[in-house]
Design a protein that fits this description.
Layout: H1 34-44, E1 49-54, E2 60-64, H2 76-86, E3 97-100, H3 104-113, E4 117-124, E5 130-136, E6 140-146
Parallel strand pairs: 3-6
Antiparallel strand pairs: 1-2, 4-5, 5-6
């Protein structure tokens, strides 16, 4: 396995030779109930539709704009700590989506009213964000979080 990539002053790593800068992160989720998932994420959570495509055999995909994307990589100890802070026990699968919102309490209520199961209500985290955890369509767990106001 090759050694670590060189780090830049900003904390970013240089891309491997021949690899351009990543322009976008897309998380692709297979949803058994496509319509339910589209309704939940587009209409209830409010992710704007960028594009939608249909193919042979009823193949369908929708691309929703979720704002700025980051890839958060956590070791098992960090994942366990986040579960403990947000939920009080281990519940998260290997992949969990997190959405920053303006009002985590209101958003959690709206999502619950639309059928999401609240795993843990809004909780103040040690890093001062307000987080809730929900089970949502397509078999996903999500965190809804509100960052503290800058002081």
């Amino acid at each position: 396995m090759p050694g670590p990539l060189p780090r830049l002053a900003t904390g970013m790593t240089e891309n491997a030779p021949g690899v351009g800068r990543v322009r976008q992160l897309r998380v692709v989720v297979e949803a058994e109930d496509y319509e339910e998932a589209v309704t939940f994420f587009r209409d209830v959570l409010g992710l704007p539709e960028e594009a939608a495509f249909q193919g042979d055999g009823d193949a369908r995909v929708i691309i929703l704009d979720a704002g700025r994307a980051t890839l958060e990589i956590a070791n098992p100890a960090q994942k366990k700590m986040i579960d403990e802070v947000e939920v009080g026990r281990q519940v998260a699968p290997k992949i969990r989506l997190a959405f920053e919102v303006d009002d985590s309490a209101a958003t959690t209520g709206t999502l619950a009213d639309a059928g999401a199961s609240v795993i843990a209500p809004v909780t103040l985290t040690p890093w001062k964000s307000l987080n809730s955890r929900l089970e949502v369509p397509a078999g996903l767990q999500i965190t809804v979080f509100q960052e503290p106001e800058p002081s």
